[in-house]
Amino acid sequence: MAKLDRLVWADGTTFISYGVRVGLRVNDAGILPEVIARLPPEWKPSPAKVVDHLYSLIGGGAKEDAKVRRLNLAYWNLLRIARSRKFEDVLDGFESHVQLTVAEHAPRRVFVHAGVVGWNGRAILIPGLSHSGKTTLVHQLVGAGATYYSDEYAVLDARGRVHPYPRPLGMRTPDSPETKKVPAEEIGGEIGTKPLRIGLVLSTSFKKGARFRPRELSRGHGVLELLANTVSARTQPRMALETLPKAFESARVLKGARGEASEIVDSILRLVE
User: What is the pLDDT of residue 205?
Assistant: First the structure.
């Protein structure tokens, strides 16, 4: 940290997100707006002088035609989390890491890897890690009229209700690892504003040609499904185990393979009618 502290830091800020205080510093004031644009949803500036986590970004390297091109770097406390000649790659690494940090250390919220939409005053929660197809399913549900809450995290409060995490949908480009950020408004979606009770937890993944015939699980198995996707399950297990059962007080739990997302949207929505 002493070596990092000796570098010349041109600008920075402090923000709070879901109760986690984060400091941010950059070596070039010109890149700070780009970094701030990657902060978690609903972050707020903070006057705090002591933070829980500190991010240090080194960017603004040499121009494309320069003979010597510097590396762009990102650090979380002492750990280097990104290193690339392209500053965009470092921004992507920072964005993913800072959202995960907030999700793991939030003191009063439990973050579950899941897509979430609202329908008829209830939340439909689709747990799953990256590449599980939850964003595709959320996209189709929003296009069918469901309210958008999240394509990455279900944010649960102590009563088991789901709060919005309204980041743009990360739609993957076909035959490419790259993602395109798509605001819910661009697909005609409405973003949720109020916490919802869960009406349906659907554990599903894509299988080509599969017929959608999910089986119903007990609430206990439902808790295990969510626990397996809970970010803070190891660092804050007590809070997770106290919160997750409350999320199932009025929820059905279904599990099964699915075919194309567009083919099962109506079936999913009918389950919450």
Answer: 87
